[in-house]
Design brief:
CATH superfamily: Vaccinia Virus protein VP39
Strand order of the largest sheet: 3-2-1-4-5-7-6
Number of helices: 8
CATH architecture: 3-Layer(aba) Sandwich
Distance between the termini: 28 Å
Oligomer: single chain
Strand content: 15-25%
Structural class: alpha/beta
CATH class: Alpha Beta
Shape: globular
Helix content: 40-55%
Order of helices and strands: HHEHEHEEHEHHHEE
Number of domains: 1
């Protein structure tokens, strides 16, 4: 089932995702940290730490948004990080952030489509994605392109929302995620659809064991899923 941000509008999921993130780009970082109580920062840190032993020097951050995950990846001391995103609004915020922090020599942000990455085969030591794969219009096609640009033996790290299963946390979280979060998101971002799309897209995403099966089908091996904070999110790792 394809979940769209704007059900009353025409256009592909890809076009609507770009429009949605352009709309909320100015408030995205604030809402991310506020609505998650800052836990998203910890999740990103944990995900990046899983790459430390591999010491990747050339890293691709897909659906980079405002570049938070790319900036976190600097802790690995890479030579270069490239971030790609389809939202020019998010990239603009990210570029301002990099300039402010003096990081333009280490991180480059490019407009790019996850399903048709503008890179040669087998060139990145690691490919990372934070809260982006569920927004792919064609999930397997996007994952295939990630696989293509990774070097043999290269590492994949994906951080994505998942669905808690533990009672009664599952029920409490669903109430917050489906009712409270969309109202706060709408009030702050002024976009009526963006934070309703969020829980809907998480519900539709094949998380946990189902996603591991997809990664195996694509060709990744040694795949693992590490649930975070009682299953609110999960970190997936694999090797080409």
């Amino acid at each position: 089932m394809t979940v769209l941000p704007y059900k009353d509008k025409d256009g592909s999921k890809k076009d609507q995702i770009a429009e949605m993130f352009n709309s909320i780009s100015g408030k995205y970082d604030f809402l991310n940290h506020f609505l998650s109580l800052g836990i998203d920062i910890l999740w990103r840190r944990r995900a990046i730490k899983l790459l430390k032993k591999h010491q990747p020097k050339f890293i691709l951050d897909i659906a980079t948004g405002t570049a938070d995950f790319a900036i976190e990846a600097l802790s690995l001391n890479p030579e270069k990080i490239i971030g790609v995103d389809i939202s020019e609004g998010m990239l603009a915020v990210g570029r301002e952030k990099l300039t402010r922090k003096g990081l333009n020599d280490k991180i480059e942000l490019l407009s790019g489509d996850s399903e048709g990455l503008p890179f040669e085969d087998n060139i990145f030591d690691a490919v990372i994605v934070s809260f982006g794969v569920r927004n792919f219009e064609h999930l397997e096609k996007g994952l295939c392109d990630m696989f293509r640009v990774l070097k043999p033996g290269g590492q994949m790290v994906i951080l994505e929302f998942s669905k808690p299963q533990l009672f009664p946390f599952k029920q409490l979280y669903q109430f917050y995620f489906n009712w409270i979060l969309p109202q706060i998101g709408k009030m702050v971002s002024k976009d009526n659809a963006a934070y309703t799309y969020l829980p809907n897209s998480v519900q539709a995403f094949p998380d946990g064991a189902a996603f591991l099966k997809i990664l195996e089908k694509i060709g990744f091996h040694d795949n693992q899923c590490r649930p975070q904070t009682l299953g609110i999110s999960s970190i997936y790792t694999g090797t080409k």
